[in-house]
Structures are given as C-alpha cells and as structure tokens.
Write a structure and sequence with these properties.
Number of strands of chain B: 0
Helix content of chain A: 25-40%
Largest sheet of chain B: none
Number of strands of chain A: 10
Oligomer: heterodimer
Order of helices and strands of chain B: HHHHHHHHHHH
Largest sheet of chain A: 6 strands, mixed
Shape of chain B: globular
Order of helices and strands of chain A: EEEHEEEHHHEHEHEEH
Strand content of chain B: under 5%
Structural class of chain B: mainly alpha
Strand order of the largest sheet of chain A: 6-7-8-3-9-10
Distance between the termini of chain A: 37 Å
Number of helices of chain B: 11
Radius of gyration of chain B: 18 Å
Shape of chain A: globular
Distance between the termini of chain B: 37 Å
C-alpha cells in the first residue's frame, strides 16, 4: 500500500544571503505515522529545514508541501504542532501557564485534556518563566498539542534537560507516535534518546547525507560526523 | 476639594483616567514585544509634527496623529521587511522629530509659546477634539484587546509559535504600533511630548513586575496608571504644580516601591 506523504520537500536550497547555502538540494518525504529523527552537526541546517517546513522562512529555491499543499498556500495550521528550539521569552514575562494554554485551545474541555495528558495540574497557575527547563518544555509541548495536530515538529526538545525530564518528554512523544499515530519529526543532538524512538534517521549537513533505520544509523554516524551514540 | 466642582477639572480627571487605562494596557504588550522605546520615539517625532501643523495652520492634534500613525507603521515595516532594528529606526525618528521642530521654530519664530505648551502638556486644558479622541482611543484599546487578546498573548510570548498557531502576526504587529501611536498622541495631551512615554512604560512595568499573570499585570498597570494620574492631578491643584510632572513623579514613586516589593 502506498504510504501517505505528510511532508514532501523537492530540490530545496536556501541561503541567508550571499553564496553560502545553508541547505543544498534537499529532497525528503515524511510519511504519516512516522517518527523521523533529524541529526547533524551544529550549523548543518536542521533548524532552518524545520522552519522552512513550517513556512517561517521564505526565499528558498525548490518546493515544500504540507499535506499535499504548497506550504506558502497552506492554511490548516491546526494540523501542525511546533516546539521551537531555545525560546527567547522576555525574562519578566508574567504570562501564566493557564493563560498560555487558554490562548491556544478552542474549548475548556481541550484545556482539561491537555492538563491531564501532560500531568500539568500543579503548573497551571505558575508563571512560565519561573518553571524549570523540563516543565517549560512540557508546556511548549502542550501548546503544540493543543489543536490535536497530525504532524508534530520538535527542535531539540530535550536540550538542556536532566535525564528524568528527557525520558519523560520522550515517553510522551513515543506514545503520541506509536499509540496515536501522529507523525513526529524531531531534531536532536542526543542520539541516545532519539535512536530508540525513531523509525528513521535522516542525517543532514547542508544536504542529506543519508536516510536509514536507527540501527544502521548508529554504525554510520560515527564514520560521517565523528559522533558517538550517547552524545 | 472645591476645585473638583469645576467643569474643567472634572473633564481633566475623566480624560486622565481614559488615557491612563489605554496607555497601561497597551504598554504591557509594548514592553513584552521589546518596544518600550516606541513611546519616546513617537512622542518626540510628534513634536516635529505639531510644529509643522502650527506652521501650516491646521488642527495640530489630528494632523500629527495621522503623521505619527504613518510613521509608526513605517518603523514596523522597516523592522519586519527590511530587518532594521526597531530601536535604530526609533532613534532616527526620535531625533528627526525634534530636529524638524527646531528647524521650523527657526523659520517661523512666531509660534514658540503654542509649541512649547505641547512639550509639557496640560491635562486641565482639554479641548473637545482631545476629549473625543481620548474616548475613541480608550474604546479602540478595549476593542483590540477584546478581539485579539489570545493572539497577543501568543505574539508577546513567541512570534514563531503564534504564526504556526495561525495568528495573523503581521497584521497584529501593525495593529499594535497603530494603537500605540494613538495612545502616545493622547498621552501628549496629559503630560506633554517629553513625558508621554512614561505613560506607556512606567505603570505597565510596575504591573509586569508585581503580577504572576498577564491579566494581573494589566489590572495592576491600569490601577497604578489611574491612581498616579488622579493623585498627580490633585497634588498639582493643591500645591499649584505642573500636572504632567506631578503625575509622572507619582508614577516613578510607585515604580520605586514596586522595585522594593519585588526584591523581597
């Protein structure tokens, strides 16, 4: 049976200005229900790739399709969830977790579902900026999941978190992928937590170096990037 | 207290309260969007606009409001489309407005007193146009928050998340600077060009510092702004002081108290 494409990228190249291309002739398809891990060294274009898929970056060459529609014309953003890398929120921002989540849900019942699903009962009336890194990631995940998206894009969601928080986030992502059939695309440097969850690993360094199963990737990674499994 | 019975005092108090709430609510989002300097930039540009309007013989308030609206949207355009930092554009606008006023002063030489009255404002001398403008701006702020509160929560938090959640980010940014322009223009009436930015910055900052929620910040900001304005006006009446300066001094006092409270 033909696998359903959620994201299709054709001949994608991008430069922030000048001759240096951050991404070079990238071709990639991401399929429904797949847990795709994207790895690569710093400056490899991983974050740029996610931002292009999300329509946050324009001026690229090539084509990007989301659910079969060109991303520049795509309007069904409730089908997509996004957890960005390193939030630069104003340090004094007073917004509470409840206010944040209330601003993205349509119904009170959706808010209750999110709180229960992510076990955020105790965080609700706290200020977002006062939360620990792990708790903040949980809230960002809650925002991403608020519209019950089919596609979830996460940029280093476990960076800077302690082991317990990393495992907690990965458990949730795994359950979303395996039990709820959501398509998960996760950029990470942490191969140790990514490989056990992912169905496929794509390694990029401005261009796609390879696309393989996590098992094969483990062998390839060290030879291409000089990285090690638990880095 | 018998002064409170005078029509011009009551009118001043009403306009003061309207301006205070409009500024405090808008100011919270300006600060969270790192646009706190917008008030200072626009109010100083307005000084040039007012000078020009007096020279041309047109109604200063309405003429300058249109100019400031256009300019604020221009600054936002440069920030978004040309990637020129808002602080850089505003610094140019800030000095440009004052430079324009100084040049026009030199050319005409005949309207110094009327122009200088805008430097420090006077909330106790409110024209009908200014009264209606204050009411309109107050209603505009309430409307824009009623319709777009959720989107502004997200926008103030993270623009990328707001975009992915389908918020009309570009429109909201232009809307915010447009509303801020109107608020700055009415604040000039209250405290003048030199102090107008304090209305959109100080009470809002106190609210942000003292509250653990965004709605709480907006409430505290509004209370601080209203109480500072009313007490500033009463102090000025009782001690024969300039109302604008008195209002801002009270605001600064609340800011200092908030700093102490926050430290605990």
């Amino acid at each position: 049976m033909q696998k359903e494409e959620v994201v299709r990228i054709e001949n994608l190249s991008f430069s922030y200005g000048g001759d240096y291309e951050v991404l070079r002739n990238v071709n990639l398809s991401i399929y429904k229900g797949e847990f795709l891990g994207i790895i690569g060294p710093n400056g490899a274009g991983k974050t740029t790739l996610l931002r292009i898929i999300l329509g946050l970056v324009s001026g690229y060459k090539g084509s990007v399709y989301l659910f079969g529609k060109n991303v520049s014309q795509f309007r069904e953003w409730e089908r997509v969830g996004y957890v960005p890398q390193r939030l630069s929120v104003e340090k004094l921002h007073p917004v509470s977790v409840r206010e944040l989540l209330s601003s993205v849900v349509r119904r009170e019942s959706d808010l209750e579902f999110l709180i229960e699903f992510l076990h955020m009962e105790e965080l609700l009336d706290k200020q977002f900026v006062k939360l620990s890194g792990g708790q903040q990631q949980l809230v960002l995940l809650g925002i991403a999941l608020s519209s019950k998206p089919e596609l979830l894009l996460l940029d280093e969601p476990t960076a800077g978190l302690d082991i317990h928080s990393q495992e907690h986030i990965m458990e949730i992502l795994k359950s979303l992928s395996k039990e709820e059939g959501k398509t998960v695309v996760m950029v990470s440097h942490n191969l140790g937590i990514l490989f056990p969850c992912a169905d496929r690993i794509v390694a990029i360094d401005r261009e796609i170096k390879y696309s393989a199963s996590p098992e094969d990737s483990e062998k390839l990674v060290a030879s291409i990037f000089g990285l090690h499994g638990n880095e | 207290m018998e002064l409170l019975g005078y029509d011009f005092v009551q009118r001043g108090l009403l306009v003061g309260v309207l301006i205070a709430i409009s500024s405090a609510l808008t100011g919270v989002f300006l600060i969270l969007r790192r646009l706190a300097f917008l008030g200072a930039g626009l109010s100083h540009f307005a000084f040039g606009g007012i000078a020009l309007s007096i020279l041309l013989g047109v109604e200063p308030f309405l003429f300058t409001t249109v100019l400031v609206l256009l300019l604020a949207n221009g600054v936002e355009f440069l920030r978004r489309e040309r990637k020129i930092g808002g602080d850089i554009s505003l610094a140019v606008v800030f000095s440009g407005g004052v430079a324009l006023a100084v040049v026009l002063l030199g050319i005409s030489g005949g309207f110094r007193e009327s122009l200088f009255s805008y430097l420090f404002g006077n909330i106790l001398i409110v024209s009908s146009v200014e009264l209606y403008m204050s009411i309109a701006v107050f209603l505009a702020v309430i409307l824009f928050l009623t319709f777009y509160f959720k989107s502004f929560v997200l926008l103030s938090f993270n623009e990328d998340i707001a975009k992915v959640k389908g918020a009309p980010v570009r429109f909201l940014n232009y809307l915010l600077v447009s509303v801020a322009s109107l608020v700055v223009m009415v604040s000039i009436k209250a405290v003048g060009v030199l102090l107008a930015s304090s209305f959109v910055v100080i009470p809002s900052m106190v609210g942000i510092m003292l509250s653990k929620s965004l709605k709480g910040s907006m409430l505290i900001s509004s209370l601080v702004a209203v109480l500072s304005t009313l007490s500033g006006i009463l102090i000025s009446l009782n001690f024969d002081l300039a109302p604008g300066g008195s209002i801002v001094m009270v605001m600064i006092l609340t800011f200092l108290i908030a700093l102490v409270v926050k430290k605990r």
